[in-house]
Amino acid sequence: MRPGFRAALGLVSPACLWLLAFFLIPLGLVLRLSFFGFSPTSGIVPALELGNYWKIFADEYYLGIFVRTVRISLLVTFLTLALGYPEAYYLTRIRGRAKALVLVAVLSPLIVSAITRTFGWFILLAPNGLVNSAILGLGLADGPVRLIYSETGIVIGLTHVLVPFMVLSIYASLQRRNPALVSAAQTLGAGPVRAFLEITLPLSLPGIVAGSVVVFTLSMSAFVTPAILGGTRVRVVAYLIYEEFLLSLNWPFGAALALLLVLITMVVVVAYNRWLERGRWAEVFR
Amino acid sequence: MAKLELDRLTKRFDGILAVDGVSLAIEEGEFVSLLGPSGCGKSTTLGMVAGLLAPDAGSIRIGGRDITRQPGHRRNIGMVFQHYALFPHMTVAQNVAFGLRMRKIPKTDIATRVRRALELVRLPHAAERHPRQLSGGEQQRIAVARALVIEPAILLLDEPLSNLDARLREEMRIELREIQRRVGITTVFVTHDQAEALAMSDRVAVMNRGRIMQVGPPATIYDRPANEFVSSFIGQTNRIEGDVVGAEAGYVTLRVASGTCLRGVAGGEEPKGRVAALIRPEKITLAGEAPAGRNSLRGRVQDSVFLGTVIYYIVSTDGGRFTVLAQNTGAAPRAAGTDVTLSWEPAHTLLVAPAAME
Fold first, then answer.
1. Where are the domains of chain A?
2. Cβ of B73 and A281 within 8 Å?
3. Helical H segments across A94-204, by residue range
4. Quick one: which of A55, A66, A190, A253 has the fewest CB in 10 Å?
C-alpha cells in the first residue's frame, strides 16, 4: 500500500463507516423488507417474493402516482433552472453589500422552516387567498383557480424552496470561469449573446448538471411540501410511502415503494449525466 | 493590415486616471511595444483598442477610420491574451475556427484556413486535441493562430509570453516576431519585460501612470532616455545630481556635490538648475588615471561579481555608489578595496530633470 493511499484511506474511512452504519445497512434492511409479505391480521410475514413490486406495476393507481412524481420533479427542475440561471449570472456581476443582500434573498427559502413556508403558500394559494383574489380581481378567471390540492401548488412550493440549490451550484461554476474567455470570443467577432451561448453557457454546464441533480432528487423525495399542498388528493410517492408505513402499517409494501423511488431517481440522474457527458460538450466535464 | 492611431485616449476607473491622454501612431506592419510597470495603463490601453473597454475620451482610428464607438466584436482585431484564453471545451481546430464561424465563412473555407493557420504556427497535428492536452508554448501558438486566422487589421498581444518558462520565452520571442514579419501585420505588444520589448519591437512606448513617457526605437530608448523614469525602468543606470554651471561646445557642465565638474548632453528639454546625470554601467571604464576629455570620478571597488562575459563592479565614489559593467578581457578582476578612477564619455552622460521622488 502506498503511503498516499493509506492517508487517503484514513481520511475517508470515518465517512465510509458512517455511511455503512447509517445508510447502507438500513438500505439493505429496507431491501430485504420489500420482499416480505403482509397480512392485515398477522402483520409482516418473512418471505422472499416479488409480490409488492407486482402490486405496484399491476395497479394504475400506483403507477400514476409514480408518473406524477416524476412529472412534478422534472417540471420543478426545469423551473428552478429557468429562474435560477439569470439569478446566478446576476450574482457574479455584483459586489460587496449588494451581493450579500442578494445572497440572503436567494437563501431565504431555506432559512424559513418547511412547515412555516409551506403553510405560507397554502394561505397565498387558497381559493380565497391573495393569488386567487388577484386573479379574480384582474378578471383573468371566472372562479377561483385550483392552486392548493393540485400539482400546480406542489410545483410552486417545491420550486420556491429548491431554487437556492440551483442558484448556488450554477453560481459556483460561473465564478470559476475565466473572464478572458468571453473577451476572447468578443475580439473574434462574437456579440454578447453569441459569446454567452458559445462560451459562458457550455462552461457552466457542470453547475447546471449538479443543480439539476440535486433539485430533481430532492423533488422526487420531497414530503412536507406535497403533503401540505397536495395532501391526500394529489398524492406523490413520498406521501404514499408515509401512508403505507404509518397508516396501513404495511411496511414491506412501503419498502418496495421506497426502493423503486430510489431506483427511478438514480436511473434518471445517471441517464441525464451520461447524455450530457457524452454529448457535444463532453470536454466541459473533464 | 493598417495604420493604428490613438488620439488622446483617456480612461478612468472609479475616478482614478488609468490612461491619461495617450496618443500614439503605429505604422502599417510596425511592431510596437507598450512597456511599463503594472498599473501603468498599458493593458487598459490595449483593452480600449480591442473594444473590451470604452474610453472616457479620445479616439482610436484604424486605417484612418474612427472605430472608437464600434463594439469590440465588429472591429476585426486579433488579440492574444496573457493566459491564452483558449476555449477549454473546444478542440484546437474549433478554437481556431471560432472567429471564422462568427464571420459566417463557408465550412470548406474554414477548414482550409484553419489548416493554414495551424501550419503557420507549426502545429498542424494538434487540430483534434483539446487545449488542456497542450503545453504552455503550444497553447500560446494556438492562441496566435486563432487571432491571425481572421486576418485582422491589427494584432494585439497582452503579455503573451509571461507565463512561459525562461527558455521557451526566448524561443517564442523569436518565433512570434518571425510570424509577425511574415504576415506583415501591425502589432501592439504589451509587456512589463524590458528585454522582451527591446528585443522584439520596431519601436517601444514606455508608459508610466497612464502616460507615454517616451516612444522610440529600442536603441534610442536605451541610450537616450527622455527622463529618469525611462532610464531607471530600462536597464541599469547610475545617477548623480548636480547644478548646471555652464555650457560649451554642445556640452552642458554641471558641478556635483563633491565639487567635481562633469560634462553631459541634454536628454529631454534644455537642462537648467538642478539636474540628474544618468550614466549606463557599461559605458564606464575603470582605470588608474582618467584619459583627458572624459568625465571622471575617483572611487574604491566595494565588491565585484564575475558573470563570465562581463564583470560587475560596485564602486563607492564621492558621488555615491556606482555600478560598472566591464568586459571580461582576461585580466584579473580588480579586488575589493582597490582605488580606481571611473571615466566615461561626456556624450554618454545624459542630463535630465530629476524625477520627483515618491
1. 57-285
2. no
3. 96-111, 114-125, 130-137, 151-175, 179-187, 192-195, 201-203
4. A55
Using an 8 Å Cβ cutoff, are B252 and B244 in contact?
yes
pLDDT of residue A4 exceeding 90, the answer is: no
CB contacts of B159 in chain A (<8 Å) are none
For residue B87, list chain A residues with Cβ-Cβ distance below 8 A.
Answer: 181, 184-185, 198-199
A228-286 pLDDT, tens digit per residue, is 999 889 999 999 999 999 999 999 999 999 999 999 999 999 999 888 888 777 777 77
| Among chain B residues, CA nearest to A203 | B89
How much is the pTM? 0.84
CATH assignment, A57-285: 1.10.3720.10
Element (H, E) at A209: helix A205-221
pLDDT of residue B8 exceeding 50, the answer is yes
pLDDT digits (tens, 9 = 90+) for A208-238: 999 999 999 999 999 999 999 998 899 999 9
In chain B, the residue whose alpha carbon lies closest to the alpha carbon of A187 is B73
Give Cα B50 distance to the centre of its chain: 20
How far apart (Å, rounded) are the C-alpha atoms in residues B224 and A9? 66
Residue A283 DSSP code:
G
List of chain A residues whose C-beta atoms are within 8 Å of the C-beta of residue B51? 186-187
How much is the pLDDT for B21? 93
- Beta bridge partners, B242, equal B256, B275
Q: Cα separation of B139 and B175, whole Å? A: 14
Of B87, B147, B150, the CB nearest to A199: B87
